Structure formats: C-alpha cells, structure tokens
C-alpha cells in the first residue's frame, strides 16, 4: 500500500529512515548498485521527497504502527 513520506530520522547505524503517514518507518538507503536513492544523502534531497509515496509492506501485512503522529 502506498503511503506518503512525512519525515525522516536516522537509525542506530546512521542510515536514513522515512517516517510514513501510516505510522510505519521504512529505510531509504542510497546503497549502489542495489538501491539508488542519491536524494537521501542531502537535506534538500530529503525535503524534496516529503509527500512522495512509498510502497509500505508493513501496511500490506497489517503490522502495528512504528510511531504515532
């Protein structure tokens, strides 16, 4: 199920994690050649993706929220 990005934080390994509107979190790594997300490496790039929808597998599985808000 597609959900919009509403914010970001880093995990314990300093990898970027998107906060989704549904209450779930999803890693958004730039890890070439497997994952190409150069936008995540800059503040302006991350800000430009607020509202962009990501496919939330946790919603598809009916998992509880990771955060509130």
CATH level-3 fold name: OB fold (Dihydrolipoamide Acetyltransferase, E2P)
Integer count of domains: 1
Strand residue content: 25-35%
Principal-axis shape equals globular
Unreliable spans = none
Helix count?
A: 2
User: What summary fits the major beta sheet?
Assistant: 4 strands, antiparallel
- Structural class based on helices, strands and sheet pairing: alpha+beta
DSSP helix fraction:
10-25%
Q: Strand sequence of the main sheet, in spatial order?
A: 3-2-1-4
Q: Calculate the terminal CA-CA distance, rounded to whole Å.
A: 18 Å
Integer average pLDDT: 94
List SSEs in N-to-C order: EEEHEH
Report the top-level CATH class.
Mainly Beta
Rounded to the nearest angstrom, the radius of gyration is 12 Å
At CATH's second level, what is the architecture? Answer: Beta Barrel
Write structural notes for this entry.
This protein is of the alpha+beta class and 69 residues long. It has a single domain (2-60), classed as OB fold (Dihydrolipoamide Acetyltransferase, E2P) (Beta Barrel). The chain is 14% helix and 29% strand. It contains two helices and four strands. The protein has helices at residues 43-48, 57-60, and strands spanning 2-10, 16-20, 25-27, 53-55. It has a four-stranded antiparallel beta sheet with strand order 3-2-1-4, with no helix packed on it. The model has no long low-confidence stretch (mean pLDDT 94).
């Amino acid at each position: 199920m597609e959900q919009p990005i509403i914010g970001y934080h880093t995990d314990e390994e300093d990898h970027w994690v998107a906060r989704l509107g549904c209450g779930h979190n999803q890693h958004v790594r730039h890890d070439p050649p497997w994952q190409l997300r150069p936008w995540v490496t800059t503040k302006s790039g991350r800000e430009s993706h607020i509202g962009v929808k990501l496919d939330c597998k946790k919603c598809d599985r009916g998992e509880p929220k990771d955060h509130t808000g």
